[in-house]
Amino acid sequence: MRPRNAAATRQALLEAARDRFTRAGYEGTTLRDVAADAGVNLALIKRYFGSKEGLFKAALAASPRLLTDVPSDRAAFAEALSRQLSADTWPEFGEHPVLMLLRASGDESVTARRREALEGAAQRIVDALGPAPDALLRAELLVALGVGVAVLRSAVGVEPLSEATADDLTGPLRAIVDALMPS
């Protein structure tokens, strides 16, 4: 019998859950599939996370968030956004981790978590880049742009966007940031 490593098991479950939730959405993901992907007993999900919703919340919290640290300088913000959206940013995920926020859940609590994550990204933009007329709306448009790029790049594979590097994206994104969030 091999010794148990709770931290490694928990991490394996989080990675399997993140992958399943990103590809299949909340409704399309079963705990049995996550356990099988992680190579562990289904009962361990209940032990570590309590429920499917608890597993989703933990997987969401453990995933990189869009625009976690928003620089207050517009040029630096455009560069940071470019890095997060470029083709080589999230190779360990296969698809952009923001896609986990887009799949319908059918569960209001999960939908609220998804909404909070996206609204939080917009609020971080407003907080960093300062007030502008309709600042929150403008910031939400930037979040929508980021989500759209992630979808087109990761889930659809639209060229040349799917192969664009951070350097390729910085100039166009800088123009959009300047237009949406004037100083």
Could you tell me the number of beta strands? 0
Oligomer: single chain
Structural class designation: mainly alpha
The helix content, as a percent range, equals 55-70%
Radius of gyration from CA coordinates? 18 Å
User: Strand fraction band?
Assistant: under 5%
Q: Sheet with the most strands?
A: none
Approximate shape: elongated
SSE order = HHHHHHHH
Poorly predicted regions = none
Number of helices: 8
Number of domains: 2
Calculate the mean pLDDT score and round it: 83
Distance between the termini: 63 Å
Topology (elements, then pairings):
Blueprint: H1 6-24, H2 31-38, H3 43-49, H4 52-62, H5 74-85, H6 108-129, H7 135-156, H8 166-180
Helix pairs in contact: 1-2, 1-4, 3-4, 5-8, 6-7
DNA-binding region: 30-49
Pfam families: TetR_C_16, TetR_N
Keywords: DNA-binding
